[in-house]
């Protein structure tokens, strides 16, 4: 497998994915994306030695198709009958929209396709609908004490030569926090991670006007390339 062959397969898979989405066959579209993800995983870590350029392309494509699957899952949830009444599903959709958006935005610089812009427009629309339903957005922001290692070489991130966001031989470099300890958390309007939204149905006023938060997400681990773990 070389990079041209991989991209050719990805292009035809993408076309089939678009066609299935147009027919609202999101479960089948997800399967279609999974086939390509499987090929990417095999290319990055399999027995058949691919060159570094092909492995890097496989990682980029794996992230893209994982984002397309997020999009399908959003539409599967939306199509379920009581979506608008189910707060738990709205929370799930919100997180998936951000997962999808982060993955598609990352991929857009490597894989140019007008369909991705349409997809991002649809996401924006869905976010607006959720904002209208849930009211003004407040988020939790956690202050964490931790050490940070490089996801490529596992050394202290400050001491290695890798750069977060760059791909090295099929591996995405990121700053990986370890030994996490929650120091503090606050409610903010401009969060680092909008996934940690403070939903109105998770807060209520108790006696004496105390504000109580229940089951609120304060830190969510998210990786663009989590498809490599499966
Ligand atoms: Zn490193």
Keywords for this entry:
two-stranded antiparallel ribbon; two-stranded antiparallel sheet; alpha+beta; flat; binds zinc ion; 5 helices; 230 residues
Largest sheet geometry: 2 strands, antiparallel
- What count of helical segments does DSSP give? 5
Note the beta-strand portion: 15-25%
Order of helices and strands: HHHHHEEEEEE
Cα Rg: 20 Å
How would you sum up the global shape?
flat
Task: Show unreliable segments.
Answer: none
Total number of beta strands: 6
Major sheet strand order: 1-4
Q: Could you report the average pLDDT, rounded to the nearest whole number? A: 91
Q: What is the distance, rounded to the nearest whole angstrom, between the alpha carbons of the first and last residues? A: 22 Å
Q: Pairing-aware structural class of the strands and helices? A: alpha+beta
Helical content, roughly? 40-55%
**Ions and ligands:** zinc ion
């Amino acid at each position: 497998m070389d990079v041209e062959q991989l991209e050719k397969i990805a292009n035809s898979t993408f076309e089939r994915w678009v066609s299935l989405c147009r027919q609202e066959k999101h479960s089948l579209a997800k399967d279609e994306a999974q086939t390509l993800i499987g090929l990417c995983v095999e290319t990055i870590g399999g027995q058949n030695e691919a060159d570094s350029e092909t492995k890097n392309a496989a990682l980029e494509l794996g992230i893209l198709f994982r984002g397309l699957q997020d999009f399908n899952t959003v539409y599967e949830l939306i199509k379920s009958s009581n979506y608008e009444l189910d707060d738990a599903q709205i929370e799930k959709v919100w997180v998936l929209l951000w997962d999808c958006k982060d993955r598609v935005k990352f991929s857009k610089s490597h894989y140019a396709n007008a369909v991705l812009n349409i997809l991002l427009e649809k996401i924006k629309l869905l976010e607006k609908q959720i904002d209208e339903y849930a009211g003004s957005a407040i988020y939790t922001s956690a202050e964490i004490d931790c050490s940070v290692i490089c996801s490529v070489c596992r050394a202290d991130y400050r001491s290695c030569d890798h750069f977060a966001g760059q791909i090295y031989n099929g591996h995405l470099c990121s700053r990986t926090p370890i030994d996490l300890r929650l120091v503090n958390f606050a409610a903010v309007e401009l969060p680092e991670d909008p996934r940690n939204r403070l939903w109105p149905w998770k807060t209520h006023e108790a006696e004496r006007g105390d504000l109580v938060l229940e089951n609120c997400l304060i830190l969510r681990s998210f990786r663009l390339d989590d498809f490599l773990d499966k």
